[in-house]
Amino acid sequence: MSGGRPPFSSRIPWIALSCTIILIDWITKRVAVAYLAPHHSVNVIPGLFDLTYVENPGGVFGLLRGLEDGARGVIFTLVPLAAIALIGLYALRIPGAHRLTLASLALILGGAVGNLLDRIRLGYVVDFIDVYWREYHWPAFNVADSAICVGVGLLLLETIWQPSENADPRPAPQGPAAAPGEERR
Length: 185
Hints:
With 185 residues, the chain is α+β, with helices and mostly antiparallel strands. The protein has a domain at 35-161. 50% of the residues lie in helices and 13% in strands. It has helices at residues 12-35, 69-93, 99-122, 143-161, and strands spanning 41-45, 49-56, 125-133, 136-137. A four-stranded antiparallel β-sheet has the order 1-2-3-4. Helix 1 (12-35) runs parallel beside helix 3, helix 2 runs antiparallel to helix 3 and helix 3 packs antiparallel against helix 4. The radius of gyration is 22 Å and the shape is globular. The termini are far apart.
């Protein structure tokens, strides 16, 4: 194989993961639309978790929802399209042995596509998961948002715990530190 690119067939499990996220997100949003009244909550776990139908015209957690519809529509269509393209291109270059990276990218990609489909079709994203503790509510979210957050979290954990490829594998020298201007022997 020339150029060191992994074969496309090694990407099929990750494409399947992205498609699974898109499908689960689509099904759960359709159920929310069919069975939940807007801004009416169905208590699932008292004091912790409700199902609440919300139409989110903004970005993540409702950011930028105050923008004009036209500007908001362009931003929330073009930015995800660019992100999806970049994630796809990056994923094609990752070696197959980097399974956590590929799984993380698949989760992010599936979530981004799931929310983009809502945005294109409806002009807003359907959110319905309402997590709270007493009077403190996390903004409503959906399966796509969850996949994106888990994917980003896994990428961050991998970055923190993965040793740098440039790190010196030799142990650090032991003993007293050299005084300024002196060389350590």
